[in-house]
Amino acid sequence: MSRDQYTLTDPAKLYADIEPEKQKMSEPGLDAELNDKADLGEETYRGTGRLTGRKALITGADSGIGAATAIAFAREGADVAMSYLPEEKEDADRIAGILTEAGANVVQLPGDLRDPAYCRDLVAQSVEKLGGLDILVNNGGKQVAVEDLADVTDEQFDDTFKTNVYAMFWITKAALPHLKPGATIINTTSIQAYSPSETLVDYASTKATINNFTKGLSQQLAPKGIRVNAVAPGPIWTPLQPSGGQPQDALPTFGEQTPLGRMGQPAELAPAYVFLASAESSYVIGETLNVNGGMPTP
Ligand code: NAD
Ligand code: MG
């Protein structure tokens, strides 16, 4: 079945061939080791010049949703700075190759989002090496499922908030002086912001925070011509899930609770980020675009 953006297909039948196995990876997980392989749109995404000449910084750009977004941005004409953890070099190098092939200038800036100095330097390096910044995608994230709150360590709670919330704050704050009218910020929240799983109390709280941060900041920045929006994915097949994001037993049926009856692929998220990054969404501000297989949201 054709998976490009333009062919008429039954969304309930799409990706029936991608079936996740039980597999335990250590955090942060590698796309290179994912079974079955996720679809990042490598073979299919077709750009139409919607981000020509834009300069984008994407966190978590090595794999999953961030990588699919990076591929789409590059094929739409953007240059891309990629943030990821040093241990994800293998994934990041592969994605950087695909972006370069699309004609993009690519800057690879590995580091740890829990470190405010890295977050600030990430922005400074992106601006310096790309020659400016027009699009910021806060996408890097930590999700570790724990059944009992008593077993959520202070360290996990702290790391999850640092990675998902504090880094977004540090990076956005550092980016603001560089953003001109027309610039866009896109944060990655989740269906978990509205429908928290019992095993993801800490993670889901960060996602509700991200939604609220997005809506508040969007009010502040709209008069300056900077638009802030969010994307809220549902269950998407990425290394986040087998590396502790889901209990092992949940992997084979991952996403089957959605009205489409299946998990989503990173390639199905990228067009939402392109839309919010491009001038096509000029009147869209403080919005959360839900890409979740049909689960109702507030
Ligand atoms: P992913 O594992 O491919 O991407 C997450 C990335 O976060 C990693 O590749 C890593 O580079 C980065 N990261 C994690 N900790 C970091 C740290 N300390 N320092 C630097 N980088 C760090 O998984 P994904 O599912 O594509 O996740 C992307 C975003 O989508 C996350 O914010 C996640 O919460 C969100 N999300 C995912 C799903 C899903 O089902 N996969 C659903 C809703 C929301
Ligand atoms: Mg990764």
Explain what this protein looks like in three dimensions.
- This protein has 298 residues and is an alpha/beta fold.
- It has a single domain, classed as 3-Layer(aba) Sandwich (Rossmann fold).
- 32% of the residues lie in helices and 11% in strands.
- It has seven helices and seven strands.
- The chain has helices at residues 64-75, 89-101, 116-130, 154-175, 201-221, 241-245, 270-277, and strands at 55-59, 79-83, 106-108, 135-138, 184-188, 227-233, 288-291.
- It has a seven-stranded parallel sheet with strand order 3-2-1-4-5-6-7, with helices on both faces.
- Helix 5 links the parallel strand 5 and strand 6.
- The radius of gyration is 18 Å and the shape is globular.
- It starts with 54 loop residues before the first strand and ends in a 7-residue tail after the last strand.
- The model has no long low-confidence stretch (mean pLDDT 97).
- Bound molecules: nicotinamide-adenine-dinucleotide (NAD) and magnesium ion.
- Magnesium ion binds at residues 28, 62-63, 84, 88, 91, 239.
